[in-house]
Amino acid sequence: MEKKQFSTYDEQITFLEEKKDLIITDKEYARRMLLKIGYFSLINGYKEAFKESVSNQFQKGTTSMWST
User: Fold this and answer.
1) Which superkingdom, per the lineage (predicted)?
2) Does some domain include residue 3?
3) For residue 58, what are the β-bridge partners?
4) What b/e readout covers 41-63, taking b as 16+ CB neighbours within 10 angstroms?
5) CA distances from 3 to 6, 36, 59 (A)
6) pTM over the 0.85 mark
7) In the prediction, which pLDDT does 66 show?
């Protein structure tokens, strides 16, 4: 099994924006929430309702709770 490399909070935010098409406008709040809750607990808990099954991308226009 391949080990995943640690990503910084900024890298996690960039990944969500660029690779998963999630709109995050309040990056400071996003960093605090990632620190407090963690990426997998935060994203995996509700992502299926907002993702396209074929592309595995967030639906166009999906914003995070970090948006103002």
Assistant:
1) Bacteria
2) no
3) 51
4) ebbeeeeeeebeeeeeebeeebe
5) 9, 23, 28
6) no
7) 57
